[in-house]
Write a structure and sequence with these properties.
Elements: E1 28-30, H1 38-42, E2 60-64, E3 67-76, E4 85-92
Antiparallel strand pairs: 1-2, 2-3, 3-4
InterPro entries: FliN-like_C, FliN_T3SS_HrcQb, SpoA-like_sf
GO molecular function: cytoskeletal motor activity
Keywords: Cell projection, Cilium, Flagellum
């Protein structure tokens, strides 16, 4: 279930009269950040572990370009797509005002 942000309207069907509605966009899902020192980064090799600033159950952030558009939880798909990652949206931005 998606929580609406204040002022958000339901546009799931989209505006099919707008020619831009069929243009694909790339969404980047950020699971966390790491800030190693360069000397530590140079030591990394196969099977090295790079700790992130988030825990497994923390929300991930969805971006279009540099703009935060939503937050959600990582999930594994079932059935024919078993093993594929997906994101269940928990918070969606009002694209005019952004996500706070």
């Amino acid at each position: 279930m998606t929580d609406k942000m204040p002022g958000q309207t339901n546009t799931a069907a989209g505006d099919l009269s707008n020619p831009f509605s069929a243009v694909p966009i790339e969404i980047t899902v950020s699971v966390g950040k790491a800030r190693p020192l360069v000397r530590d980064l140079l030591k990394l090799g196969r099977d090295a572990v790079l700790p992130l600033d988030r825990r497994v159950d923390d929300a991930v952030e969805l971006y279009v370009g540099e703009r935060l558009i939503a937050r959600g939880q990582l999930e594994e798909l079932e059935g024919d797509q078993k093993g594929q990652l997906a994101v269940r949206l928990t918070e969606v931005a009002n694209l005019q005002d952004g996500l706070e």
